[in-house]
Amino acid sequence: MALSDPIADFLTRVRNASSAERRYVDICWSKMKEKLAEILKEQGFVENYLVKKENDKRGTIRIFLKYDSRKPVIRGLKRVSKPGLRRYVKHEDIPNFFGGYGVAIVSTSQGVMVGNEATKRRIGGELLCMIW
Fold this sequence. Notes:
The protein has three helices and ten strands, in the order H-E-H-E-E-E-E-E-E-E-E-H-E. The mean pLDDT is 93. It folds into two domains: 67 residues, Ribosomal Protein S8, Chain: A, domain 1, CATH 3.30.1370.30; 55 residues, Dna Ligase, domain 1 (2-Layer Sandwich). It is an alpha+beta fold.
């Protein structure tokens, strides 16, 4: 089955597994999803992730979720730019929320990165999602 919004599917699977207190979640592989998993690990929202590729186009990402005293570290995920309504922001308009505890993920001309890094590099792009 073809997905119209694979990033929203990624976020929904992580959100559902986190609320169900699962140890890990398996997601179909793509370069974008692998980069999102890498950002989640760098920012401390997940413990680790593994990529198992069957070939160059197919594979699976296993994301190991992180918990703090039996409560999920990920409190919320929100898809901002959607296929029906893309949201592009300048570097000065990238949101900073929850006193810096929240992370905005931006797809720029130099790759997918965290909003703080995009602001430092002074580049804008498509605001993919926000995680807190």
